Amino acid sequence: MTEKLDTYGSSQRRRVTSRLLLTCLLFLALLAILQQGRAAAQTSGDTYVVQRGDTLASIASELDIPLEILAATNQLTDINALKVGQVLLLPEGAARRTVIARPGDTIQSIAEREGLSDLRLAILNSTTPTARLFPGQPVRLLRDTVPLATPFGSVKIVGVPSTIVQGQTGWLEAEVDRPLSLEASWNGAPLGIRPLAIGRKDETGGEVTVWGGHVPISASLEPGVYSLSLSYEATNGVTVSRSFPVFVQGHIFPVQDIRLPADKDALVEQEISQEELDHLSPIWSRTVTPIQWRNPFLLPLQSDFPTTSPYGVSRNYNSGQYFSIHTGQDFAAPGGSPVLAPADGIVTIAEPLTVRGISVILDHGAGLFTGYWHLQEALVVPGEKVRAGDPIGLVGTTGRSTGEHLHWELRIYGVAVDPMPFLTRPLLAVPSTIELEVEQETEEGQ
Ligand SMILES: [Zn+2]
Hints:
The chain is an alpha+beta fold. Helices cover 17% and strands 33% of the residues.
């Protein structure tokens, strides 16, 4: 758990590797464009009208279509030669997560056509149910997940990620058309899934509830196929359940060699680390606190300091005496820099620890916690509620740290995952004009 600043070597190696990978990918994409040509021009019949500011890459990303397939479908040899107003054909199967607005469409009319709740679609698309959409505008049906064609019982829509990369977090979503208590499990262990929004389905007044939850994958989980299950108790008392396969894809994390000074015995160090982990585990495994945040996280520092050791680095102590996986992201921020809450939350810990030094842990609800180690000083006390952007401490080098830096960690159900994607990913982007029924603060969570 010892933190080191001197890891530029490994992050540089990673940068070189990713540049090489990018070059290869671009080359493959070009090959695919040249080879597929007309052959790939099977389209779904849907079209997309190019808007100001669009690039082919941004459209491909927005519609979740591989760039080379979109280029090939439209026989584009120069992907930079897009014109505003140009009509692009969409390849077959492209609209699985997205539909394209037709002239006169609103979220309501699309919801009706697709048999979905307008409220949910409005939330997913950060708009209101009645807002006019421009023809060709992509409208999301699901976020970060692939809808499966196998709804079951009262579960009308299920979005389960087909693949999650080691160290990343998947998103599970379900829409049910009557009040029920949905449960989810990952390989038999319970996952938190909870109601995020309740809305009316149509004029007949049917109610739908949108359930959602994270699927955190540890950097050390073996790649392979795992089972994600959803279940609920039917009115006749029978448990209705369905399992979905999810592939955990391996990721190559950089390796960092660490030599402990002669006066530090590696095994004693490991024992101390374990003791501290045993103290913290029950704290960050709680799932009772209601959701405190909805928007993407803010960076926990005032500016974008360089990363000195990314999440997932595999640390090899004294040539194999023991290994550990870096459970967070290290930023080279100077001592005394304010550390900011990335989202609303409740302070659960603000205390000095042996390995992590002066530490603050925030509970953001729904089983999601963030941790800040090696602080010079904590500016909050346990039980205090903080808002996104509030200062919670100062960067330091307390505990087992070799230099001033911030270690930022994100845990869901106790599993440490890569915190960086949370800077761009909302739980749900809620437009202020929509009133949501969300879970009530019935528990204190402390
Ligand atoms: Zn660290």
